[in-house]
Amino acid sequence: MAITSIGSHYAASATSRSSALTGSTPAAQAFARADQRIQQQRDTTSVQLSAAGRLQSAVADTQSAAKALSDVKQTDSAAGIRKTAAGFIKAYNNATAVSRQVTTPNSALAENSRARTAGNDIRRAVGADYSTTAALRDIGITRQQDGGLVIDQKKFDTAVEANAGAVRETLSRVGQQAERVTTQTLSSRGNVGSTVNTLTNRARELDTRQTEQQTQATAAQQTVTVQTNRINNLQVAAGIASYERIFSF
Question: Global pTM?
Fold first, then answer.
């Protein structure tokens, strides 16, 4: 066997061992499994965070519409009153719909108790007491079975024409109540705010863990490579020495 053939033989053996160490050893497999688990958790958290972000955005839109509704007393025209009321109802209905979508069984936040409670917060933002519900009904705004609001435009317009001041008073009271509730639930300690913050922190922690895991895997890979090369060099040197001794007689 030529010297070059011996070198090729040991080099091939070293490559085989290196491949085993880096791809099939218990350590390599453990790193791969750990990384996969973290990635699965990260993917799940990303989906949950996206859903929580949608809910946060919808509630924030309701908050803005509620602020406009609370200031409706400053609106003189019937058209302005209608527009402000319609804007609030649209934002509120969207928030209730998003809340249902992200917390129903098998949805992203189905197991998140604070996200589910946020739905109650949204519904509580309108008609928290009987007098407010009755006042809204008197001007043509009622609650649907799914929690959303529907407006009887003809009845509403008639109420505005009959007593615009009373309509503005009712809408302003509802707006103030809705603004207060949505502001609270969006706060860092509120159900929506805390849900988003918790998931954001979890995503960051998982990112950090995954980075650390990959750093450890890289370091382990480098250690294996150095050790494999050292073993390979020693075995090649020993093989050459043995080969030379055969022909030294």
Answer: 0.74
